Amino acid sequence: MTFILGLTGGIGSGKSAASTWFETQGITVVDADIVAREVVEKGQPALQQIHAAFGDGVLLENGELNRQVLREHIFKDPNARQTLEYITHPAIRQSIIQQLQAATSRYVILVSPLLFETNQHELTDHSLLIDATEELQIQRASQRDGQSIEQIHKIIQAQMPRQQKQHLANDIVLNDGHLEHLYSHLKVLHERYLKR
Fold first, then answer.
1. What's the CA gap between 165 and 170, in Å, rounded?
2. Rounded to an integer, what distance in angstroms lies between the CA atom of residue 33 and that of residue 8?
3. What is the per-residue pLDDT for 79?
4. pTM of the predicted structure, to 2 decimals
5. pLDDT tens figures, 68-119
6. Which residues face 172 on adjacent strands?
7. Do residues 35 and 92 lie in contact, with contact meaning Cβ atoms separated by under 8 Å?
8. To which H or E segment does residue 156 belong?
9. Are 194 and 123 in contact (CB under 8 A)?
């Protein structure tokens, strides 16, 4: 049975930098965000269900999902978010499980910004939180994505509070310095995970 590590962190925490580093070590990474995009691609059952639930407005002319319209819909209506999650979460979970089981590396990583919020940590044996202060998160995310500080604040508010994630995580790396600082911490953990 392959050891499964859950990797999480808030927006701008450095979780993508961490998952990329693990990939360079030959570790298979299953990214929940990528899976979430795949399950709503054209021709997928989840997209057909979203179309049925939300109407023609959520589709682009080419039949693909209009993410912008759907996002606006969800921010305005809390019930819309529940409906969307009811459609997408089972499909995402199923795909994640299949990809984790297909992995052939010494251990496998499930990277998910909502690892605890969506109970995806139940699919893992151990969890690693890449942590950063809210100030750093805002600074990095605004530089990287060009999003407004207000938008980033909304994303942070929608995610589980830092303290709660810290309480739930098995390992925590505070990513408050340079990438080399982050990598040196990951190297130590990687050696430990290889022995699992």
1. 10
2. 11
3. 93
4. 0.89
5. 999 888 888 889 999 999 999 999 999 999 999 999 999 999 999 999 998 9
6. 129
7. yes
8. helix 149-158
9. no
CB count, 10 Å around CB of 171?
16
Residue 160 DSSP symbol: P
User: pLDDT tens digits for 21-64?
Assistant: 999 999 999 999 999 999 999 999 999 999 999 999 999 999 99
Chain Cα centroid distance, residue 29: 11
**Nearest-5° Cα angle at 193, 189 to 132:** 35
Contact 124, 138 (CB under 8 A): no
CATH class of 1-27+105-196: alpha beta
Q: CATH 3.40.50.300 residue ranges in the chain?
A: 1-27+105-196
CA distance 14 to 19: 9
Q: How confident is residue 146, by pLDDT bands cut at 50, 70 and 90?
A: confident
Give CA–CA dist 130/13, Å, rounded: 6
- Encode burial over 99-115: b for 16+ CB neighbours within 10 A, e otherwise: bbeebebbbbbbbbbbb
